[in-house]
Design goal:
The protein is mostly helical. The protein contains 7 helices and no strands. It has one domain: Orthogonal Bundle (Arc Repressor Mutant, subunit A), CATH 1.10.10.60.
Length: 115
């Protein structure tokens, strides 16, 4: 069983199936949360919770860039609320989710003064 868990390559799919809940991920793997923590420490050098939050924020960045609102992205990715989502997003990227929205992406040549 241990070798099978170490061979899992589809951690992102597992996280989505578990609604981004580390305890549910562990349950789906039929191991304890503590065992999952050891696996993540060895493989990713972080906790399952930190890894899941980073995954959620990467997914949110993609959704927002494609036109989702901050609120819709937060709901889609199972954050408790929009405020919690924005806080976590800023921790991961150092910027607010709105900076990735299409309306906030500067047009080509924006800020360039004409000669």
């Amino acid at each position: 069983m241990r070798k099978q868990l170490e061979a899992i390559e589809l951690w992102e799919a597992l996280a989505r199936e578990a609604n981004f809940q580390p305890a549910t991920m562990a349950s789906l793997c039929r191991i304890s949360l503590r065992q999952l923590e050891r696996i993540f420490d060895k493989r990713f050098q972080k906790t399952p919770g930190a890894w899941v939050r980073e995954l959620q924020c990467r997914e949110a960045q993609r959704l927002i860039a494609s036109g989702y609102s901050t609120k819709a992205a937060a709901a889609e990715l199972k954050f408790a609320d929009q405020s919690h989502f924005c806080h976590e997003f800023r921790k991961v990227f150092g910027a607010s989710p709105q900076t990735f929205a299409p309306a906030y992406i500067p047009a080509p040549g924006f800020g360039v003064s004409p000669d």
